Fold this sequence. Notes:
By secondary structure, the chain is of the alpha+beta class. 31% of the residues lie in helices and 32% in strands. A hairpin with an 8-residue loop joins strand 10 (112-122) and strand 11 (131-132).
Amino acid sequence: MSRRRQIYEGKAKILYEGPEPGTLIQYFKDDATAFNAQKKGTISGKGVLNNRISEHVFTLLGNIGVPTHFIRRLNMREQLIRQVEIIPIEVVVRNVAAGSISKRLGIEEGTQLPRTIIEYYYKDDALGDPMVADEHIACFGWASQEEMHDIADMAIRVNDFLCGLFAGIGIRLVDFKLEFGRLWDNDFSRVILADEISPDGCRLWDMTSGEKLDKDRFRLDLGGEVEAYQEIARRLGLLPEGDTTVLDLEKHRRRRGK
Ligand code: UDP
């Protein structure tokens, strides 16, 4: 168990105080929730894979100039991040119809959208994260117009980059969720990408078979969750062919009760 002071516990991650002011440690749990936490479960090994996948994606995004909270991975389940003030908006980017947009608007799952859609959801579990418009965000002061401009620009850049990254490994990036935070420097703040990018918050379909390689396996009781996450990590080059060392080590660690 970590002895550091816990700052916050969410559904899939815990935040601990970091080693220096302005830093935090982000710990990836194996817990999974869906349908506004009405469905709960554990996907053994998920946290290890998400830590690794998110590290990889945030590093690549940093390399193309997208500012992120990621500093470095510390161990199998933890990464050092910059402390930000989370903007209470979930930003969903959609390339293909699936999930809530299919249900709400009656668009068949798998329909390629003629243009990318960005949607905003107000982060509030008690309200079930309702969808909101720019108008609500401005009216209630959740983010400024300037911040929303930066957020939309970054979301499109992230989408363009990720579409290419995943297409290169035979994956269709259907949709995904991003979160942003304010990084304060005295009286000034700028918006940077926060949270994580992993199969927990993306829909990733195999381009040939259409197989779902993301959290929908859990949501829809399809089974094979960890294998799907592992397949994403493997295709990204994060697990050498046939190598399950990361997960084996993790199992070993858990068996010893550490
Ligand atoms: N998503 C997420 N957290 C949420 C809601 C959605 O990470 O609280 C992700 C989800 O994994 C999917 C995308 O955002 O990749 C769009 O989700 P959608 O609105 O279709 O909702 P869902 O079908 O997941 O309820």
